[in-house]
Design brief:
Rossmann fold, 309 residues, single chain, alpha/beta, four-stranded parallel beta sheet
């Protein structure tokens, strides 16, 4: 794994197919650990990881923290709201001061695109991107890929629909990059106002603005959270209309029941992008995604900080 190991995980775009599949195999072994009575394997005992989140996050931050502790790491959760950044200190100085405490890795989420890459240019610790602006969210894509492979096997030729706010979604970008590297056929669907100006530049195969057509013949539907603040900017008329035209409603689910995995990166807006009946259905792997997130983040930490594979 030349591109990922031994330093950073900045984005899926930089990984090879082999890198992704190696992490999936490693995540499988860590998931087996999570299913045992004793869920810890202290292979990274003595390593110190700082979780540096400048944006609100529950699922991703807690998932990383659980993964770190399962591996025996010392964990520091950094609160940007109570840090010296509020006193005028630059991000660079903050990072350099944290690194001076002899830490081994920094998990960073920030609204600025490419901030993790910038930090990696002056920092000797391993940097893991937990989401940078509307750019990438690589660990989410890797856990999504793990979940798909776990349920479908080889993804070559599989049809995956990503629906919702593609334009502003780092999850969509990372998923598209990963899926294309593994040979999947990727569709996207959403209102024109929530699609990139040139959607095909992302590498997708098909673009839809009609959800009823988009769900035909798919193997996976990955519904993205609609950021409700977009409505205030006039990017879609109303929540009800969004659900009617683009939501994964119970009626639409009846047409694909048993033929497609239902996924969502969370948090969900039930009744907006996905109905409760669909989210809780037998085809839904939304909660397994969360479990797989811990296993995949364990795999990433182990690969960056410990294992030689």
């Amino acid at each position: 794994m030349e591109k990922l190991y031994p330093k950073h995980l900045i984005g899926i775009e930089e990984l090879s197919k082999e890198d992704i599949l190696e992490l999936v195999e490693l995540a499988k072994s860590f998931k087996e650990v999570l299913e045992k009575p004793v869920k810890s394997v202290p292979t990274l005992k003595g390593k110190t990881v700082v979780n540096l989140f400048f944006e609100p996050s529950t699922r991703t931050r807690v998932s990383f923290e659980v993964a770190e502790k399962r591996l025996g790491c010392d964990v520091i959760n950094f609160s940007a709201s109570t840090s010296s950044l509020n006193k005028g200190e630059s991000i660079k100085d903050t990072i350099l001061n944290i690194e001076a405490m002899k830490i081994d890795a920094i998990v960073v989420r920030h609204s600025l695109v490419d901030l993790p890459r910038y930090i990696s240019t002056f920092n000797s610790s391993a940097i893991i991107n937990a989401g940078d602006g509307a750019h990438e969210h690589p660990t989410q894509a890797l856990l999504d890929i793990f979940t798909m492979i776990e349920n479908l096997g080889d993804l070559k030729g599989k049809v995956v629909l990503i629906a919702g706010d593609i334009k502003h979604s780092r999850v969509a970008r990372s998923n598209i990059y990963a899926l294309k590297k593994l040979g999947a056929k990727v569709r996207i669907c959403g209102p024109k106002t929530l699609l990139p100006e040139d959607p095909y530049i992302l590498g997708v195969d098909e673009v839809y603005t009609d959800m009823d057509k988009a769900i035909e013949g798919v193997d996976v539907i990955n519904n993205l959270r609609i950021q409700l603040e977009r409505q205030k900017k006039g990017l879609f008329p109303s929540i009800k209309e969004y659900n009617d035209f683009f939501g994964l409603t119970s009626e639409r689910y009846e047409r694909i029941k048993g033929n497609a995995l239902i996924m969502h990166p969370g948090p969900m807006n039930r009744g907006v992008e996905i109905d409760s009946k669909v989210a809780d259905s037998k085809d839904s792997v939304i909660l397994p995604q969360v479990t797989n997130g811990v296993a995949m983040r364990m795999a990433i930490l182990y690969k960056l900080l410990g294992g030689r594979g």
